[in-house]
Design goal:
eight-stranded antiparallel sheet; nine-stranded antiparallel sheet; Beta-galactosidase, Chain A, domain 5; mainly beta
């Protein structure tokens, strides 16, 4: 497979576009936050059909959520009062961390991939105080997009801690018609009133099938820990729009379901959760990932969009 690459400008954004004409799949990534702003497939008329909320539209939203597939890191969700203590250093930041606001350099372009990098020398100390580099790769693999996070701890004498994930919103003709299918298994629902963990959980032994949560409660977010899920294959379907997305989240310890009530549902793989109301030190955040001195950490998952009748 050999994809074609081009750089374009649209509405003040620099976009990197990777297209696989053979399989009829294309992605667009803005260098602001290395955010995936479009996943599209060619339909029977050879026109592109987008799968993300506001697919390809990088102008500010008139109302509601302004993003498409927010990148989360070096922490996920929120830290209490936008401040956290990390071994005597103060981390400051809003929801999902600093990465989403970073303007990335041009990516490394492979035969079928785009790789965006963050070097520790370009990270402000108040955003993250230790020397940890990140590489994010979007790769086209047949009918799927593989997303890979790779972290490198350059501290010789200290472990490093990171949380990360992706916040993709999948488009629907309406929220009411959208469907999320959840695989069978054992889950823990972490309760987070006011966007912070209370410490309470609800155990769910699920037989598999349609999301067992009311769509009217999605603005509060459902934080699911995958306690024992043999095949973490989630499915999003927009029957009216003829779109279906297969999500293989093998290796992700958490999946978040969220919508602000607009015509989309986010199904988010997460390596970490928000702060507790009674805040813990950064290195003790629930789900935080630890990297050994001079060690690395890599995690990936796939998003496969299909047009269905």
């Amino acid at each position: 497979m050999a994809s074609t690459y081009e750089m374009i400008s649209r509405d003040g954004h620099t976009l990197d576009v990777l297209t696989d004409e053979t399989n009829g799949i294309r992605i667009e990534v803005t260098r602001l936050g290395a955010e995936l702003v479009s996943i599209a497939r060619k339909n029977a008329n050879r026109d592109w059909t987008g799968f993300l909320y506001r697919d390809g539209d990088v102008t500010p939203a008139k109302t509601g959520w302004n993003n498409h597939s927010t990148l989360m890191g070096y922490y996920t969700h929120r830290i209490k009062d936008e401040r956290s203590d990390y071994r005597g250093h103060t981390i400051c930041g809003g929801p999902h961390g600093f990465v989403r606001h970073t303007v990335f350099d041009a990516p490394e372009v492979g035969p079928d991939s785009l790789t965006y990098r963050i070097d520790p020398s370009k990270i402000a100390p108040e955003s993250y105080p230790f020397k940890v580099a990140m590489a994010l790769t979007y790769a086209l693999e047949g009918n799927a997009v593989r997303v890979t996070f790779h972290f490198e701890n350059r501290e010789a004498d200290a472990t490093a801690h990171v949380s990360f994930g992706l916040h993709p919103g999948f488009a629907a003709n309406s929220l009411e018609s959208a469907e999320v299918m959840i695989p069978p298994g054992k889950y823990a629902l972490h309760l987070a009133p006011g966007n912070f963990l209370s410490g309470a959980t609800e155990e769910i032994d699920f037989e598999g099938g349609a999301m067992p949560f009311a769509k009217s409660e999605l603005p509060g977010a459902f934080l699911l820990e995958l306690k024992s899920v043999e095949l973490p294959l989630f499915t999003f379907t927009d029957p009216a729009g003829g779109r279906q997305v297969m999500l293989n989240y093998s290796g992700a310890p958490y999946v978040t379901l969220w919508s602000d009530g607009g015509p989309f549902i986010c199904v988010e793989p997460c390596w970490g959760l928000p702060d507790h109301h009674e805040q813990r030190p950064f290195a003790e955040k629930l789900g935080i990932q630890e990297i050994e001195p001079l060690g690395t950490l890599s995690r990936s998952f796939t998003i496969a969009p299909f047009l269905v009748s």
